[in-house]
Amino acid sequence: MKIAITGSTGLIGQALIPRLLAQGCEVIRFSRSRDPIGAVYWNPEGGEIDQAALEGVDAIIHLAGEPVASGRWTKAKKARIRDSRVKGTQLLAQTLARLQKKPEVLLCGSAVGFYGDRSGATMIEDSSPGEGFLAATCVEWEASAKPAEDAGIRVVYLRTGIVLSPGGGALGKMLPAFKFGLGGRLGSGKQYMSWIAMDDMVRGIEFALDQSSLRGPVNFTAPNPVTNAEFTNTLARVLRRPAFLPVPALALRAIFGEMAKEALLASTKVQPRKLLDSGFSFEYTMLESALRHLLGTGEPHRG
Description:
With 303 residues, the protein is an alpha/beta fold. The protein has one domain (2-295): Rossmann fold (3-Layer(aba) Sandwich). It has helices at 11-22, 75-98, 133-143, 146-150, 169-179, 198-210, 228-239, 249-256, 258-264, 273-277, 287-295, and strands at 2-6, 26-31, 40-43, 48-49, 59-62, 105-111, 122-123, 154-160, 162-164, 192-193, 195-197, 216-220, 226-227, 269-270. The strands form four sheets. It has an eight-stranded mixed beta sheet with strand order 4-3-2-1-5-6-8-12, with helices on both faces. Strands 7-14 form a two-stranded parallel sheet. It has a two-stranded parallel ribbon with strand order 9-11. Strand 5, helix 2 and strand 6 (105-111) form a beta-alpha-beta unit. The protein is globular. The two termini are 31 Å apart.
């Protein structure tokens, strides 16, 4: 299978590409530079893309996007978050629709931020969108892929939760403090965190590539979301460190503003209904076993 990937240098892309190569897939990376041999040149901000390089590609995995939880959301930062997703997806989808030989499938990044802050209510793929900047961005993001759908390409929206990897993302940022015993819950700790181990994220993408019945929004989260207090206590237990330094919500809002409200303190409890109904089997359904596997603190085991 010939697969083109945007966001190949990101957290998920770096874990996914070696797996695809090991399975004999031909992987083509998108690049903003015209220099790399064998890469697809694109410049989403300028509306530029090498359409000819995409002819004959079997699948596209679209993971590119400005990081969300990397500091306070200024007006310029919010514009980059939105535009990197919406404009990039529009350019890609419109280009794919014009190809003579179109790909069979487009796996398009999205996020559980689509559901917004929903307290303890359980969200599945047909739940309505929430409110706020992230939810509105996700709605636009997914809508931007419509030209590909209209052209007959199977489109899957990867509504991704918190992807756990010691190499980066939320867990990577938390580890230094927790290893020194300086971790603790955020705010009340009652907000739900919908997580997925990197192993299952990668396996889920592979599954979605091959499962022709999967289309539309698909939640990429483990079946057992936890509260922030449960997450922090579990991480501390796995690391054999205390977790007694909570960060008050007021302090988070003062430091991070709107980002704290929507990305750190929002509660989103999500179930991966479509993946489970399609026969996907998670290796890590419980947070502690996932963390022990990822951090090498105990015998890796399923469940």
